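Human: Not sure, check this?
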Amino acid sequence: MFRGGAPRALFVVLLLMAILLIVADLNWSKMREGRSYLSLVVTPLQWLVDLPSRAADNLSGVLVSRATLLSENERLRTEALVLERKVQQNASLMAENIRLRELLSARERVQEPVKLAELIGVNPDPFQHEVIINRGSEEGVYAGQPVLDAGGVMGQVVSLSHYTARIMLITDARAAIPVEVNRNGFRAIALGKGVMDELELEHVADTADVRVGDRLVTSGLGGRFPRGYPVAKVTEVVRDPGQQFVQVKAVPTARLDKSRHLLLVEHHSQSVTRLTEGADE
């Protein structure tokens, strides 16, 4: 344009045409209709020009959305696992709370002083029904001390160290506990059979009044177990006309294979014996 010649002439022509179009657009109504038609013609071109940009935006949105969804899915899965673990923990705590409430109720029924103990081990020998608790001689535990749970008598202390004690359960084949039928006071000896859910009464006469469903409680004979604590429930009475004695089987009321918290009973006769021994020394 500044060199003169054809470029300058073209610039002047285009400038005049632009001025004429502006004037015509302002004063001539037909120009507006022409502009609308021109926009209609240009619209497909604008759409084609904008297509790559829109395609890139959509692709970017899809990629970002997928990454976001994967991240959110992973986060929700983690939160679900955490919540599931908390639910399981809460269920375990609720069950333990129920067991402790039952044990507290049993403690209120016990007249003698008691100590709370927790089971920390089980004898792996299948022929010896023994458990280990976290109380020992340092806490005043003594050999022969009765052990209860919320359901009834579990057994007695057979050996101990400073901080642990070994409990022989009433179902052990070596165990025997004096009992009486709660309904009528009939006395017998309940023997362990080496089976976790079975006791058997020894030398029960054929004429004895023992029935299925009778509850057996400690008789207090022998001075080892205090009187009146639940031991078992009679499940079977077999009478053989050719035999002098009947076979009586019972199931322990204590949860021998489930209880975790136990009560150590400070039996009065044992306390007097220990105090007497201490005075003699």
